[in-house]
């Protein structure tokens, strides 16, 4: 990814756009899985959380933070595919 050293350039952001959109769509689809123990209201709430996280993440310009956000999204997706709900780490 790294054309810029610390801050992402427009080229860096464009290069990751497809990957991020794919992760976003896959996570939203995974929340519809019948393997997850969620009722309709909980599913809609989780989808709203995902939208908010990706919306806030879209404003990020630090290369390292963007990489961390993508890693976190991939990890969350792997948990959702196993039928588990990702928990907040406190």
From TrEMBL:
Domain LYR motif containing residue range list: 12-81
PANTHER family linked to this entry: COMPLEX 1 LYR-LIKE PROTEIN (PTHR36724)
Species this chain originates from: Coffea arabica
Pfam family, one: LYRM_2
Protein name: Uncharacterized protein LOC113728463
Organism ancestry: Eukaryota, Viridiplantae, Streptophyta, Embryophyta, Tracheophyta
């Amino acid at each position: 990814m790294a054309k810029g050293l610390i801050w992402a350039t427009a080229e860096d952001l464009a290069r990751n756009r497809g990957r991020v959109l794919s992760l976003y769509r896959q996570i939203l689809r995974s929340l519809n899985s019948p393997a997850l123990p969620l009722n309709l209201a909980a599913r809609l709430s989780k989808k709203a959380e995902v939208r908010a996280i990706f919306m806030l993440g879209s404003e990020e310009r630090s290369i390292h933070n963007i990489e961390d956000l993508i890693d976190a999204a991939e990890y969350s997706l792997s948990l959702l595919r196993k039928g588990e709900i990702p928990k907040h780490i406190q």
